[in-house]
Design goal:
Low-confidence stretches: none
Shape: flat
Distance between the termini: 43 Å
Radius of gyration: 16 Å
Helix content: 10-25%
Number of strands: 4
Strand order of the largest sheet: 1-2
Order of helices and strands: EEEEHH
Protein backbone atom coordinates (compact mmCIF):
# COMPACT_ATOMS: atom_id res chain seq x y z
CA UNK A 1 0.00 0.00 0.00
CA UNK A 2 1.26 3.49 -0.85
CA UNK A 3 0.32 6.49 1.29
CA UNK A 4 -0.49 10.02 0.08
CA UNK A 5 3.19 10.98 0.12
CA UNK A 6 4.10 8.14 -2.26
CA UNK A 7 5.89 6.04 0.36
CA UNK A 8 5.51 2.27 0.53
CA UNK A 9 4.05 1.39 3.95
CA UNK A 10 3.39 -2.36 3.71
CA UNK A 11 5.23 -4.50 6.25
CA UNK A 12 5.45 -7.55 3.99
CA UNK A 13 5.68 -7.61 0.21
CA UNK A 14 5.38 -11.14 -1.19
CA UNK A 15 7.84 -12.30 -3.84
CA UNK A 16 7.15 -14.53 -6.83
CA UNK A 17 9.23 -17.49 -7.88
CA UNK A 18 11.19 -16.67 -11.03
CA UNK A 19 10.86 -20.25 -12.31
CA UNK A 20 7.18 -21.01 -11.61
CA UNK A 21 5.57 -17.58 -11.01
CA UNK A 22 4.09 -18.90 -7.75
CA UNK A 23 3.92 -16.62 -4.73
CA UNK A 24 6.59 -17.25 -2.14
CA UNK A 25 4.75 -17.25 1.16
CA UNK A 26 6.20 -15.86 4.37
CA UNK A 27 6.44 -19.34 5.91
CA UNK A 28 8.48 -20.83 3.04
CA UNK A 29 11.77 -21.10 4.91
CA UNK A 30 13.50 -22.98 2.08
CA UNK A 31 13.04 -20.20 -0.48
CA UNK A 32 16.07 -18.24 -1.70
CA UNK A 33 16.81 -15.05 -3.57
CA UNK A 34 19.90 -14.85 -5.80
CA UNK A 35 21.43 -11.56 -6.93
CA UNK A 36 23.74 -11.86 -9.95
CA UNK A 37 26.04 -8.89 -10.49
CA UNK A 38 26.11 -7.31 -13.94
CA UNK A 39 29.50 -6.73 -15.57
CA UNK A 40 30.61 -4.54 -18.46
CA UNK A 41 32.55 -5.67 -21.54
CA UNK A 42 35.82 -5.54 -19.55
CA UNK A 43 34.40 -7.84 -16.88
CA UNK A 44 34.10 -5.17 -14.19
CA UNK A 45 31.12 -5.04 -11.82
CA UNK A 46 28.75 -2.16 -12.72
CA UNK A 47 27.06 -1.90 -9.27
CA UNK A 48 23.84 -3.28 -10.77
CA UNK A 49 22.42 -6.76 -10.39
CA UNK A 50 19.67 -9.07 -11.61
CA UNK A 51 17.52 -10.79 -8.99
CA UNK A 52 15.99 -14.26 -9.18
CA UNK A 53 13.85 -15.85 -6.44
CA UNK A 54 13.05 -19.55 -6.05
CA UNK A 55 10.51 -21.35 -3.87
CA UNK A 56 11.40 -24.18 -1.56
CA UNK A 57 9.40 -26.52 -3.82
CA UNK A 58 11.69 -25.85 -6.79
CA UNK A 59 14.72 -26.36 -4.56
CA UNK A 60 13.34 -29.61 -3.11
CA UNK A 61 12.82 -31.00 -6.60
CA UNK A 62 16.41 -30.15 -7.53
CA UNK A 63 15.35 -27.88 -10.39
CA UNK A 64 16.99 -24.67 -9.20
CA UNK A 65 20.20 -25.08 -11.19
CA UNK A 66 18.41 -25.74 -14.48
CA UNK A 67 15.92 -22.93 -13.84
CA UNK A 68 18.70 -20.46 -13.00
CA UNK A 69 20.56 -21.39 -16.20
CA UNK A 70 17.38 -20.96 -18.27
CA UNK A 71 16.58 -17.59 -16.67
CA UNK A 72 20.17 -16.34 -17.01
CA UNK A 73 20.17 -17.21 -20.71
CA UNK A 74 16.84 -15.45 -21.26
CA UNK A 75 18.14 -12.37 -19.37
CA UNK A 76 21.29 -12.44 -21.57
CA UNK A 77 23.54 -12.88 -18.53
CA UNK A 78 24.85 -16.20 -19.78
CA UNK A 79 25.48 -17.50 -23.28
CA UNK A 80 23.59 -20.55 -24.54
CA UNK A 81 25.90 -23.51 -25.10
Amino acid sequence: MINDEGQLIDLYIPRKCSATNRLITSDDNASIQVNIGNVNEKGLYTKEYTTFAFTGLVRARGETDAALNRLAISAKIMKDC
